[in-house]
Amino acid sequence: MINQIYRLVSARQIEVTYKDRAISSDHVVVRPTHLSICAADQRYYTGTRGEEAMKKKLPMALIHEGVGEVAYDPTGEYAVGTKVVMVPNTPTEEDPYVAENYLRSSKFRSSGYDGFMQDYVFLNRDRLVVLPEDMNMEVAAFTELVTIATHSIARFERKAIKRRGTFGVWGDGNLGFITCLLLKYMYPDCKVTIFGKTQYKLDHFSFVDEKIFINEIPEDYMVDHAFECAGGKGSQYAIDQMIDHVHPEATLCLLGVSEYPVEINTRMVLEKGLTLVGSSRSGAVDFQKTVDLYKAHPEIPEYLSTLVGYTQEVTSVKDIITAFESDLSSSWGKSVMLWKI
Ligand SMILES: NC(=O)C1=CN([C@@H]2O[C@H](COP(=O)(O)OP(=O)(O)OC[C@H]3O[C@@H](n4cnc5c(N)ncnc54)[C@H](OP(=O)(O)O)[C@@H]3O)[C@@H](O)[C@H]2O)C=CC1
Ligand SMILES: O=C(CO)[C@H](O)[C@H](O)COP(=O)(O)O
Ligand SMILES: [Zn+2]
């Protein structure tokens, strides 16, 4: 069949390409219905990802956060119309120690490989997770971002010392919101503090124990462990404060992506015996865990609906451009494309 793929060819320029795809029993064909824009997509769309990466990875279809409905499964394992979340990472080998999202051989959609902006997505059958039938699909669209927090907390759990009294999360945006929320559910007895910059953003964090402006942190305020969800230029400032405001032997989980190397106060990392744990992307197991969490706690998707910031019906390339441009000027939440192209 002929599939249409909507590829970014240079900054702010998207073109349609046509690709002939053979249907095989290895693949499930999914029709995307709701696609959500990630900060990483915006770095490619605006060209701020850096000249070298743009040259190396383009042209490619953007978007690695998305859900859809099964359009065809040659084996009949999935019924037509089944609502699924799509896993953007495609591993090509297995390793007994290294997770699929850290294997250099893995192919990650919208980072050198075509993302979900296509008429149909051909997925290996272990690259989709069935969603509850009554799931809010605008929320489900950014499940991939939720899996980033799921994955990072799982790494934290394996690597940190066992004290779990207080957590600090730096970054009052999407990932900070999700990380605070999951911490509250995974460690119900712990105190979670959000460290942010903007009152109206912090107002959305109704479920945390404390909200603190980053320029008003009391000198003696300490947490057991900290998560960095700021990214960009904010990463360095956040990591600096995290180092100052954690107890000795804390674990600092780093999630924010920065285009430039950030300076870290290694003297204090050494003196306090801190563990820095970086996390990038996620794997199929994190998607299954996240969907299980949605099912066990239906309040989680309800809280997450606070993050649906902007929705755009997409029936043309012009609508895709509108969605990306509007996302750039949106001050809160995720932008979701209702994929009807
Ligand atoms: N590791 C991974 O696999 C993934 C990483 N990411 C990355 O995570 C980062 C956050 O993404 P997302 O939440 O969607 O982006 P947002 O822009 O929604 O959130 C970032 C928030 O952090 C705030 N901020 C900036 N500096 C600081 C600071 N020093 N202390 C506290 N808060 C600060 C920003 O405020 P303001 O806007 O006012 O500056 C903003 O509200 C990005 O870099 C993104 O690329 C995303 C997905 C996966
Ligand atoms: O958003 C992400 C995962 O959800 C990652 O930050 C993103 O995949 C990083 O990739 P790239 O190197 O292409 O920016
Ligand atoms: Zn992303």
TrEMBL record:
Cited Pfam families: ADH_N (PF08240)
Record field: catalytic activity: D-ribitol 5-phosphate + NADP(+) = D-ribulose 5-phosphate + NADPH + H(+)
The protein's Enzyme Commission number: 1.1.1.405
InterPro entries from the UniProt entry: ADH-like_N, GroES-like_sf, NAD(P)-bd_dom_sf, TarJ
One GO process term, biological-process aspect: cell wall organization
Record domain Alcohol dehydrogenase-like N-terminal: where: 25-133
GO terms of molecular function: ribitol-5-phosphate 2-dehydrogenase [NAD(P)+] activity; zinc ion binding
Enzyme class: oxidoreductase
Keywords: Cell wall biogenesis/degradation, Metal-binding, NADP, Oxidoreductase, Teichoic acid biosynthesis, Zinc
Pathway membership: Cell wall biogenesis; poly(ribitol phosphate) teichoic acid biosynthesis
Statement: the UniProt record of this protein carries the keyword DNA-binding: no
Cofactor(s) recorded in Swiss-Prot or TrEMBL: Zn(2+)
Residues involved in Zn(2+) binding: 38, 64-65, 144
Job description of the protein: Catalyzes the NADPH dependent reduction of D-ribulose 5-phosphate to D-ribitol 5-phosphate.
HAMAP family per record: TarJ
Family: Belongs to the zinc-containing alcohol dehydrogenase family.
Protein known as: Ribulose-5-phosphate reductase
Organism: Candidatus Kurthia intestinigallinarum
UniProt gene name: tarJ
